Amino acid sequence: MSNKEITIKDVAKLAECSPTTVSRVINNSDHPVSKDTAEKVEAAIEKLNFSPNRIAQGLKSDRSNIIGVIVHDICDSYFAQMVKGIEEFISGHEYIVNIYNTSRSVEKELHAFNLLKANRADAIVLAGGALMNKEYEQKMRSMIDQLKNQNTLVLGITPHPFDVKNIILGNDKAIEVITDKVIEYGHHKIAYIDGPKKLYTSYLRKKGFKRSLEKNGIALDENLIFEGDFSFDGGRKAALKISKKMDLVTAIVAANDSTALGAMWELNNQNIKVPEQISVVGIDNLPEAKYSYPSLTTIEIPIYQLGTNIGEYLLNRLNNECDYQFKDIKTKLIMRDSLKKI
């Protein structure tokens, strides 16, 4: 028997009952099964090390026990922390967490959704910001309508222009708060390293930066807005350009920590001291921000906690506890060594 797949019929034979009775025990059916028979079935399952065919069960119950998580860059600590929180909260429950890395590609994101739709995923988490692309938006709206018709729960982190449950992180407010602090420390010549142009999160963070300048009476200099892509390398490339304009800049506000850390690395490579010659701040409070040299001043968005909150929310909703309220995510200013008063 060890050389072939154990089936429900093998369990029924050992327990001396029908396959239907075994199925009722496995699925906690409302149909009565005597305590003695149920114990025999459970003993047979344990002895044979039997695992129910979840795909077949899903076809009958219209549930797949699949939760899809769509991330933009699994190597980015932001997404790694979030996925870790989701997976650790859901671990121990009978769900499969499928992770799709899309590199912010419209095609890859649509492909991931199509796969999850075809496999009748119970829930999908859009872990990254919305992609600003008309074709993507049009196709996604249609797909989300279809997903809703098959009772798939769709959750978006930061606003998405679709009819889904959106978790608002306050991206624009976070950048506004840290830019206010930079200005409070005497900096008026401030460079900004942006995120990916097609990402709505980038739009929101840049909006917060502009709002802080306007509020504090500082004119926006478009020549001090530098392209970035939320990556270490993107921050490094932007800092190389900034290093040639040191007479115009006393501080850099980066759209995220990875960008800020890359910028600090390149400035150091150009023998420009942080914060003595130029201050640098970020947003997210990734684990590595604490250990950079100098340590990075940033805004904490508790990403791991966000992940566990997502996991808890999904489990409650999938178990029909619809009154569950998503817990607030509180941001916090983390003062470290990369910001200097002038």
Topology of this structure?
Elements: H1 8-15, H2 19-26, H3 35-48, H4 54-61, E1 66-71, H5 77-90, E2 96-101, H6 106-118, E3 123-126, H7 134-149, E4 153-157, E5 165-167, H8 171-184, E6 190-193, H9 200-215, E7 225-226, H10 232-242, E8 251-254, H11 257-269, E9 279-281, E10 298-300, H12 303-318, E11 332-334
Protein name: Transcriptional regulator, LacI family
Domain HTH lacI-type: 6-61
Keywords: DNA-binding, Transcription, Transcription regulation
Briefly characterize the structure.
The protein has 342 residues and is α/β, with parallel strands linked by helices. The chain has three domains: 8-52, 434 Repressor (Amino-terminal Domain); 64-169 and 303-329, 3-Layer(aba) Sandwich (Rossmann fold), CATH 3.40.50; 171-300, Rossmann fold, CATH 3.40.50.
CATH class of the largest domain: Alpha Beta
The CATH architecture classification of the largest domain is 3-Layer(aba) Sandwich
- Helical fraction: 40-55%
User: What oligomeric state do these chains adopt?
Assistant: single chain
Distance between the termini: 77 Å
The CATH homologous superfamily of the largest domain is called Response regulator
Supply Rg.
Answer: 25 Å
Element string (H = helix, E = strand):
HHHHEHEHEHEEHEHEHEHEEHE
Give the number of helices: 12
Number of domains: 3
Broad shape: elongated
The major β-sheet equals:
5 strands, parallel
According to CATH, the fold-level topology of the largest domain is Rossmann fold
Kindly report the spatial arrangement of strands forming the biggest sheet: 2-1-3-4-5
Give me the secondary-structure category: alpha/beta
Give the averaged pLDDT, no decimals.
92
- The total of beta strands comes to 11
Strand content: 5-15%
Provide the low-confidence segments as ranges: none
InterPro entries: HTH_LacI, LacI/GalR-like_sensor, Lambda_DNA-bd_dom_sf, Peripla_BP_I
GO molecular function, one term: DNA-binding transcription factor activity
Keywords: DNA-binding, Transcription, Transcription regulation
Protein name: Transcriptional regulator, LacI family
